Amino acid sequence: MTDRPPRMRRQATLMRVINVPMRRILALPFPTPLSKRLMLVYLTGRRSGRSYRQPVSYVQDGGSLLTPGGGNWKLNLEPGRPERLRLDGRDVSARPELIDDVDEIDEALFTMTSVNPRTASFIPIARRDDGHFDRDGLINAVAHGFRIVRWHLEPSAK
User: 29 vs 36, 91, 106, 155, CA distance in Å?
Assistant: First the structure.
């Protein structure tokens, strides 16, 4: 039995269904309208050794990319180890940095929702009037494993 609220369970089920065609679309060798906000992360399971392709949303933040890391996929990331991404129709390499500091997460989420307001609909944390996120909600989310992944693109990918 899970302790997640029904809304989050429904959202997780919907994402599992949607991710099937997303993997195919995002793997195409050319940019698509979806690839402006979504990318494909190629991962190797930390225990199973299986290969995975995880569609994730992203926003550009200077020379890096920001991705919400609410799912278990992020557990396969090793900070600093290059990972292959399918970004805008091409393969690039990037090194993940997992952010777990509440203030940094708030700033990253503020940036992400400023660039792409739809991002807020996938984040079940209340927002304050100034657009930042409720601190207690962020603390709780981090305690339950939520992170932001900051992707540092390798020089050839920029």
Answer: 14, 9, 34, 21
Q: What's the whole-number average pLDDT of the chain?
A: 90
Exposed (0-12), middle (13-18) or buried (19+): which is 81, by Cβ within 10 Å? exposed
CB atoms within 10 A of CB 67: 24
Residue 2 has pLDDT above 60, yes or no: no
Give the start-to-end residue ranges of the domains of the chain.
Answer: 6-157
Element (H, E) at 56: strand 51-57
Map tokens 């996938």 to a residue: 122
Residue 60: CB partners within 8 Å, gap ≥ 6? 66, 115
Report the alpha-carbon distance of residue 39 to residue 26 in Å, rounded. Answer: 6
Superfamily (CATH) of domain 6-157:
Electron Transport, Fmn-binding Protein; Chain A (2.30.110.10)
CB 73 within 8 A of CB 43: yes
> Of 74, 89, 69, nearest to 26 (Cα)?
89
Q: DSSP code of 62?
A: T
What local confidence, expressed as pLDDT, does residue 80 receive?
85
